[in-house]
User: Which sequence fits this backbone?
């Protein structure tokens, strides 16, 4: 038999209006109304409504089932359609249905929030005579009478109980009768007036509308007002939109659809691949270079030079000059790793950035964004990316002018709420900045698709701040390679250990945070073959530690933290601390500190600059001035030129003094006549590497101890004697204690990395018991007890000074130290042995009306069949990843696709399809050589 009926299952309160609307529309409708008041017991509402739907579906005599409920205390959430589709209004309760929709309800609510609404249907189903209101009340679905309570507990208890149960009346100030036109006469309106008089409320008659109820009866698709629920779907509550949505039930689909699929490629390998690679690591202190044979996996030769941060070309060139020139001519691929971004952030270096913010819904607390200068600008988006307030370009121009002229910013960062979903506002502001100032701009959405707006703003600021640093490094590298007639493509190691093209790295330098440590992990694995170990990379500026488990290091996909700043940069799970061979050793009020600031060693100063001895001699004549602090004993020397800077008069004075010979801060302050050393204009000169700050470092102590000889031991010794004299300590004893402190700090960092997965290791510093126990461990115990730590994993040491500190540090905590051959250039080896990794993902979601949508691919497509959508998504995703891999520089074409289904279960244990995530990954060496330029 042909089905031609509509069945309405709804609240009895809607009966009058729904029947009236059906008659007006001329529809053949069967009605099944449930008792009023079920919204007060959502679980019972869900049970009775589902039973009624199941009965109608089993009979099979209807085309559609219209649900006469809204969200109703979420009593409709979890309702399932069977073989017959459902339609349900996207409203919270029946009031919106009487008024004609949610928008009409919002208007009334904004006009008079404390309103008690009454309709003809409401009165017919649940009206209580006003004269009896004070003698009875509702408790759940039960009517409680005053007389019954008084009979059992007395009149006073009855009065209090009824008063409490009727206390809801205090929340209202108006009684409104909704005239929907379904009933004529004054009976219903009089009841509303009577209620208003009894409770002292204002009375008002308002016009209702049958529009929404009529839409419920005729709609056969999902609209802004109606949710059309296809067969075998479940109704859910969408927290984003605040209303109802539907998702398909997984039904009989196999539960093991999830897993990993390999998409291999039958095509022959590309004939043109790189055979010889050049790995370069430009660290904060040293620049390393190695030539690597991709075919044999061997390191052919290596070179090391001091990093010249004022001009990286010098240091890179010196390292390359130590390589075999004949083998250099064979290089077909260059990979670069660097600690530059990490060091710049740790040390607070970089250009001045103006931050422009478009926070959510106008909510703005300056304390949430610890950066200056910053400014709030007009432009608001909803969480879904819909425009709430447009960008005011005129106001943006005024803010830009102020920041450039008054704050002297050199770059801008722009971050807006929901910018990762809809970047239009950020891009509009970026366009204004470009046309008005010509300065570099970083937008939050360019670096991260993660929704945390505040962290995305921090990431954008850091990126904009250090852009000139990495851009200059890559440009210098390109120039150095050209001079040696090396015309090979360059890739850069990212913080997660993967590679990206040099052009991309220039615009997104913040992604190279932990680039050096990521390369060191790869180098450590390559040099030792160990799959489970701790890797410790001690450089000139920082110490970085990582745990390798089963051959890999966990990636912080939600963002790494550096120098206390949380970012959205995807990076390896690496701890970093300001401890290195060139960490400044300073004495303040009798207490020594080591790091986190990096300076050049005094030994280097003594061997590199004429007049360094005079600067040190000057300090010896004023030694008593430094008894409280040795800060002003730090010495500055000219290392670069200031041709690109517009110097102030005081900067010119300082530079002219330093061009004659190096001078200490104390001497500069006296020569320039400033009130205090804080008034010396050193910041820009140091930021641009025009001058280099020098001080006592662990490297100097190693020179004095005879364990490391590269520069002037005499200069280091003379400077250290003054420090020991100020401390009134024997030189040998103080030197030993300070070197022991370096080893202790290194051991502590290794221990912290081990504890990272279990607790917050920084608690070691605030716990007196922990400090006492750790002191016992590091000192070898006392006369009463001795604590031992037994590390189960070996500790691989990487970096130039590692051999001097790791053996002692490892012994303190019972660890086995592994110092591989070529450990001093491990980062460069790791750079060239790293891989290009391309990762992309898409999501298949229900699109309403029984269709499926794909998020994450260009274009907008709907699919009726899930299997077709799945096959299309995989095919497009694999093709996209292969294209990106080719552009990134690898010939590998095999792609793995991981399938993850999102299948929560409803109250009945039925799986609900929320979405399918497809994650594609391609990994390959940077072995693809582009076609030669014509």
Assistant:
């Amino acid at each position: 038999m042909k089905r031609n009926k509509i069945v309405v299952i709804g609240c009895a309160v809607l009966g009058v209006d729904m029947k009236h609307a059906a008659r007006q529309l001329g529809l053949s409708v069967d009605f099944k109304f449930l008792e009023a008041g079920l919204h007060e017991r959502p679980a019972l509402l869900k049970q009775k409504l589902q039973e009624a739907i199941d009965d109608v579906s089993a009979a099979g005599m209807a085309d559609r089932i219209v649900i006469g409920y809204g969200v109703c205390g979420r009593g409709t959430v979890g309702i399932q359609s069977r073989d017959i589709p459902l339609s349900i209004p996207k409203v919270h309760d029946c009031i919106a249905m009487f008024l004609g929709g949610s928008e009409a309800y919002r208007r009334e609510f904004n006009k008079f929030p404390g309103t008690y609404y009454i309709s003809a249907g409401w009165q017919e189903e649940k009206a209580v005579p006003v004269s009896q209101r004070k003698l009875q009340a509702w408790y759940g679905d039960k009517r409680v009478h005053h007389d019954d309570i008084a009979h059992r507990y007395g009149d006073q208890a009855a009065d209090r109980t009824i008063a409490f149960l009727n206390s809801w009346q205090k929340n209202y100030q108006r009684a409104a009768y909704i005239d929907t036109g379904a009933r004529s006469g004054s009976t219903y309106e009089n009841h509303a007036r009577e209620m208003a008089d009894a409770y002292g409320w204002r009375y008002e008659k308002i016009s209702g509308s049958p529009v929404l109820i009529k839409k419920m009866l005729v709609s056969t698709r999902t609209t802004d007002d109606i949710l059309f629920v296809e067969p075998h779907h479940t109704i859910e509550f969408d927290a984003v939109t605040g209303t109802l949505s539907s998702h398909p039930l997984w039904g009989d689909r196999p539960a093991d659809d999830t897993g990993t699929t390999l998409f291999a490629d039958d095509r022959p390998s590309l004939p043109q691949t790189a055979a010889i690679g050049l790995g370069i690591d430009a660290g904060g202190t040293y620049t390393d270079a190695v030539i690597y044979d991709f075919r044999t996996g061997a390191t052919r030769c290596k070179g090391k030079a001091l990093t010249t941060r004022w001009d990286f070309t010098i240091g890179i060139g010196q390292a390359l000059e130590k390589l075999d020139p004949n083998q250099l001519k064979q290089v077909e691929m260059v990979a670069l790793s660097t600690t530059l971004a990490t060091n710049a952030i740790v040390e607070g270096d970089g250009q001045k950035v103006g931050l422009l913010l478009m926070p959510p819904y106008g909510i703005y607390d300056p304390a949430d964004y610890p950066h200056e200068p910053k400014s709030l600008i007009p432009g608001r988006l909803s969480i879904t990316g819909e425009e709430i307030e447009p960008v005011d370009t005129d106001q943006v121009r005024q803010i830009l002018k102020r920041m450039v002229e008054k704050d002297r910013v050199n770059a801008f960062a722009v971050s807006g709420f929901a910018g990762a979903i809809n970047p239009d506002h950020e891009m509009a502001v970026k366009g204004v900045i470009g046309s008005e100032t010509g300065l570099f701009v970083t937008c939050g959405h360019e670096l991260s698709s993660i929704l945390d707006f505040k962290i995305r703003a921090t990431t954008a600021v850091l990126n904009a701040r250090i852009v000139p640093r990495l851009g200059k490094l890559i440009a210098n590298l390109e120039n150095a390679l050209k001079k040696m007639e090396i015309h090979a493509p360059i890739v850069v190691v990212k913080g997660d250990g993967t590679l990206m093209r040099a052009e991309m790295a220039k615009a997104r330098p913040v992604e190279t945070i932990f680039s050096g440590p990521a390369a060191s992990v790869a180098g450590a694995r390559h040099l030792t073959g160990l799959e489970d170990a701790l890797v410790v990379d001690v450089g000139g500026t920082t110490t970085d530690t990582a745990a390798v488990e089963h051959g890999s290091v966990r990636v912080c996909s939600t963002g790494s933290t550096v120098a206390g700043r949380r970012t959205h940069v995807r990076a390896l799970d690496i701890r970093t601390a300001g401890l290195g061979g060139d960490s400044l050793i300073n004495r303040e009020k009798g207490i020594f500190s080591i790091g986190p600031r990096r300076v050049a060693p005094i030994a280097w100063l003594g061997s590199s600059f004429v007049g360094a001895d005079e600067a040190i001699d000057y300090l010896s004549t004023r030694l008593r001035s430094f008894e409280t602090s040795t800060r002003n004993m730090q010495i500055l020397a000219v290392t670069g030129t200031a041709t690109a800077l517009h110097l102030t008069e005081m900067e010119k004075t300082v530079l002219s003094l330093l061009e004659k010979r190096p001078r200490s801060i104390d001497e500069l302050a006296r020569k320039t006549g400033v009130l205090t050393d804080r008034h010396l204009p050193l910041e820009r000169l140091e930021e641009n590497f025009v001058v280099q700050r020098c001080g006592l470092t662990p490297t100097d102590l190693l020179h004095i101890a005879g364990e490391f000889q590269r520069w002037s031991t005499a200069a280091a010794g003379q400077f250290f004697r003054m420090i020991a004299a100020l401390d009134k300590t024997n030189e040998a004893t103080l030197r030993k204690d300070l070197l022991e402190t370096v080893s202790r700090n290194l051991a502590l960092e290794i221990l912290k990395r081990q504890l990272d997965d279990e607790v917050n290791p920084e608690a070691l510093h605030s716990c007196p018991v922990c400090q006492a126990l750790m002191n016992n461990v590091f000192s070898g115990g006392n006369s009463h007890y001795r604590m031992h730590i037994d590390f189960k994993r070996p500790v691989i040491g990487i970096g130039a000074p590692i051999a001097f500190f790791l053996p002692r540090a490892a012994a303190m905590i019972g660890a086995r130290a592994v110092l591989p051959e070529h450990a001093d250039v491990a980062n460069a080896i790791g750079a060239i042995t790293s891989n290009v990794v391309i990762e992309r993902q898409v999501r298949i979601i229900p699109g309403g009306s029984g269709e499926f949508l794909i998020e994450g691919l260009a274009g907008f497509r709907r699919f009726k069949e899930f299997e077709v959508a799945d096959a299309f998504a995989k095919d497009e995703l694999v093709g996209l990843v292969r294209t990106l891999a080719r552009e990134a520089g690898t010939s590998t074409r095999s792609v793995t696709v991981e399938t993850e289904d999102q299948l929560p279960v409803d109250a009945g244990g039925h799986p609900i399809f929320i979405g399918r995530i497809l994650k594609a990954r391609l990994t390959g060496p940077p072995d693809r050589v582009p076609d030669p330029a014509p």
In short: The two ends are 76 Å apart (CA to CA).
